[in-house]
Amino acid sequence: MKYRKMGKHGIKLSEISIGTMYHGSYIKKEAALACLNEALNQGINFIDCADRYGIDDSQLPLEQRTRAEIILGEFLKEQNRDDLVISSKVFKQLRESPNSGGLSRKHIRESIRDSLRYLQTDYLDIYYCHRPDRETPLEETIGTMTHLIEEGLVHYWGTSWWPPFLVERTIGIAKEFGLIPPAVEEPPYHLNARFIEVELFDTANYHGLGITAFEALSGGFYTGKYLKSIPADSRFAIESIQKEIPKDLFKKRGAQITKLLELAASIEIPMSQLALAWVLRRPEISSTIMGASKPEQVVENAAASDVTLSDEILTQIEKTLDNKPTTPFRQWG
Q1: What does pTM read for this prediction?
Q2: Cα distance between residue 295 and residue 140, in whole Å
Q3: What digits encode the pLDDT tens for the residues 208-223?
Q4: Are 211 and 285 in contact (CB under 8 A)?
Q5: DSSP conformation class of 294
Q6: Quick one: CA dihedral 130, 134, 136, 138, positive or negative?
Q7: Distance separating alpha carbons of residues 22 and 25, to the nearest angstrom
Q8: Helix, strand or coil for residue 306?
Q9: Listed residue (328, 333, 310) closest to 163, CA to CA
Q10: How far apart are CA 137 and CA 69, in angstroms?
Q11: CA 189/CA 332 separation, integer angstroms
Q12: 90 near 51, Cβ under 8 Å?
């Protein structure tokens, strides 16, 4: 496993990291712990979590859900905490209350208290604002995050899926008032979601911002396993996710996936490694967060850190995709 600095900052993240979005819901505790243990075996040091992971799922009865932070906390008890980079997030409204949710000082304080308790740790390495809060002044959010860092509860704070103009504004306000600016942004980025190349990469380069990208495999789509059919036990078989998928997606992307599978085979790697290595081709990426439901998937994905795609392969991928972005927008794919 190779490691990269998070932007201009000293902390180093494994190039491949593991996310916990479905831990506690579709990925049960035993499988989640097995994947986390294998991640450590593969040299992964960055584990990404959020307060809503595991419980924010309307498709499962409440009794079938477990907060992902609880599972991760049990895992951390058996590890050397100092060797790991642990993140969580705040924003989602988790209960019926006018002050539950958002990025107010009150909610952030309550959320960090609960996250640290569930994770059974004294601090978070990275604390993300999961989405922008248009109802709370940026000064309030930035000031609260600054105080958490000064109190030792958080080492770095970041944003997740914030538009570049808002990241720029946040950094500007922090500098104006002598506060601590965000150190990292966490957006989606994969073969057919390239909108961050237009503005966010420039912002990251200018400010030394880290980027911890997620969705490199697009829920397994860029492994090739959905080329002929949707397995019953796969993420794409989930009803709530099916509703988000354009009806012509598989037909539209089928030829592309076939070509990418051929390119991966030509250099003797699985397509999953091709997709992850393609994300890591950009130096702006600090780490790419993958999901896994089985330890063998962790092993396969982690190996992408050792894959360097040649200029010839990158050119062929570019020709196959034919989707170099010109405007910053989100697209499914």
Answers
A1: 0.93
A2: 41
A3: 999 999 999 988 888 8
A4: yes
A5: S
A6: positive
A7: 5
A8: helix
A9: 328
A10: 28
A11: 11
A12: yes
